[in-house]
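User:
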Amino acid sequence: METWSVEQVCNWLVEKNLGELVHRFQEEEVSGAALLALNDRMVQQLVKKIGHQAVLMDLIKKYKQKSQELKSPGSPREAARVLQVEAAPEDDQSSSPASRGEQVPSSHPAENLDHGLIDQRVLKQRRNVKHVLARNKALQWTKSYVLPEFPYDVKCMLAEQKCPDHSMRIRIIEFLQADMTKYLEGSLYPTTQQYNDVVSALLQAHPFLDEDGGGFFLWKRALKDRFKYVRRPIEDDEQVLRNKCKFGHRRGQTRKSLADTRFDEMKTVQIKKEAVYLDSEVDEHINWFQQEYVKTEKDWREVDRRMSQTLEIRRKLISSRTPLKDILQMFPFLKCPYQMFREFQLLTRTDIYKKTRHILESYSENILASFSLVDNPINIALQEKVKQHTDEDTLKHMKMTAMCLLLPDVFGEDPSLFVILNEKVQVSTPVLEVKNPFNRDVCEFSLYLEKERLTKVDDCVTALASLIAAFHVFGIQCPRKLSQTLNFLETLIFDEHSP
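Assistant: Predicted structure:
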């Protein structure tokens, strides 16, 4: 059947009383090889009547089973016979029913069914053989899997060992997903081990893709999300329905009617068209951001408008754990404190700069007077500087800056996760770097993210507000050794209750 032409396939349909399908098969040019490659989804699109679908799939399934038994010498039937013979002791063989002239039940399924002499132990052995063959097939996948042949531009990037951008990551994931589907003979449900094998093969071949030792989980998460994306439009696929019932989705619900299926197909096509339009629109915004960001004089009104339009896309990227480097490359204005505050306000309806200034002005005196900070070196240095100045604004600025430096010490937490003073940044979470803290003319604050400087500011209010906003805007989990400090600040910012 693999070598049949379209005409031979049509003649076969007539022989099987499926002559009504001949015209449709001729239109789609279904040859013998294409016939054997049909899955449930393709048959539903090709054949309208459910009865014809069932008959056609049954004929294809029987032909595949028959050809597989002829090709493989170690079929389940033969393997069951071997196991049955090996399981019998040598002493018992000499005294077997056959040697005594008794009737021996045949191991052939058809003979057993005819005579009603099938043995439950034989059935159990056959089931065990099927499990062994399935396990061997999984092991064969593990040993034989090799990476696919990537396109030319991807191979150039991999050869140069450049860190891939967001679009290049998507291309790599798409090729891996297509290759895995081929290995799995069309299945869209790889096992956890198979995900691990593919990602391990990728990182072994290209170690530079394992960024900071956490690349394995990022690539695996992206690959699983890709399979979910591919499965989403095929809600009526037989395998998808079986797995949804198995894992609790749509349990107890009936299968959709043909009209509902057609409606969903039309809706899927519409969503795909909208997605293509949306992708082109997003690309246009991203290109504009990148060009505008390098200009000396920026059109801030247009920046605000475009950032508002792309907010939903940006939140989806952040929630899907897209690397922050890629997000900042696509939306470089997130490095600006003003845009970070604006993003925070769009998400929480809170003016974080105004709230932070109020906190520093209201609580700095009380916090610096706390017993735990009396002998702190930073507080001692502050008291010496205070004696040298009489200007109220300067004194106010120095006390607010000191509060930023000392706040984690009030709660007995790790200050290196909050602010770095004259040291190298060692943490990946948002952290402030402060230079010359009590000299208002040359004082410098910088916000670091993933050990790289994100932005530089001139005052402690902007610096502290940027630090708090970064955790929310970029969806970063608060370090455990800094939880009380940030909880104190967020409680005041969101007016939850009096701390």
